[in-house]
Design goal:
The protein is mainly beta. The protein contains one helix and nine strands, in the order H-E-E-E-E-E-E-E-E-E. Strand 3 and strand 4 form a beta hairpin.
């Protein structure tokens, strides 16, 4: 998707393309100790992280479409703003449900958000 397509999509309400067939297991609401991640079927991402350091809390949030995958990792961004999320372990089903490791943190998918 080029810059013109992105800008046009912002004004016309066009949705980003759906996730590739081999990345459908990423869809859902994921939660870890410090992270909440939501990935929609069309690739929209809502990421929130809260890290408590003593009496301070550091918050980070990223919202936008998945622009590309690099192996299991993915890039989220709008226009010139990009964030790369490193996936050390792709989503996989275990005896306790779906799990993935994102940026060093284990995330579990909410059963109610299964595909």
């Amino acid at each position: 998707m080029g810059l013109l397509d992105t800008i046009t999509g912002l004004f016309t309400g066009d949705a980003p393309p759906p996730l590739p067939a081999d990345k459908q297991n990423y869809i859902g609401n994921w939660q870890g100790e410090t992270v909440r991640l939501s990935i929609s079927p069309n690739g929209d991402v809502d990421y929130k992280q809260s890290i408590v350091e003593g009496s301070n809390t550091r918050n980070r949030s990223v919202t936008g479409p998945i622009k590309s995958f690099d192996g299991d990792s993915f890039n989220v961004g709008v226009l010139n703003t990009n964030t790369t999320f490193k996936v050390e372990r792709a989503p996989q089903q275990t005896g306790d449900g779906w799990v993935m490791v994102l940026d060093g943190e284990e995330l579990r998918r909410s059963p109610s958000s299964a595909i």
